[in-house]
Amino acid sequence: MDPFLEAAIEEARQGRREGGIPIGSVIVHHGLIIGRGHNRRVQQGSAILHGEMDALENAGRQPASVYHESVLYTTLSPCSMCSGAILLYGIPKLIVGENKTFLGEEELLRSRGVTVEVLQERDLIQLMEDFIAAEPQLWNEDIGVPDTPSNG
Prior knowledge:
The protein is of the alpha/beta class. It contains eight helices and five strands; from the N terminus they run αββαααβαβαβαα. It has helices at 3-17, 41-44, 51-59, 64-68, 80-89, 106-111, 122-134, 136-142, and strands at 24-29, 32-38, 70-76, 93-98, 115-118. Helix 7 (122-134) packs across helix 8.
């Protein structure tokens, strides 16, 4: 397995160990991880710290040229917010661990010139299926589904 995807998976597992949502991400520039993170909405009481956003934050301020030469690895297809950040910073390539449990804005990214590769890693699919089954209300909150009598 790709070592950068492995790093993103370790971030996802760390997030789950912390009581959060198991989604991880790393940003790679010229073969080096410059930012890594995991979904920390629960841990930090944050509205925006998805895995990709945490990785960007942990990369710190970078020149535009660095983003334009980077690859973002994420364990799960990116939501609208995270896809917007990918477009804003001009990250040209995205490697997605899986999109079976959640299909984000991959078509938007492709339509704007981002190369998107989806790997469908079975372990990641299982990790997310297990999490969603165990914590449906938390999952719905994370992807912006309002509470209703039918979902929690």
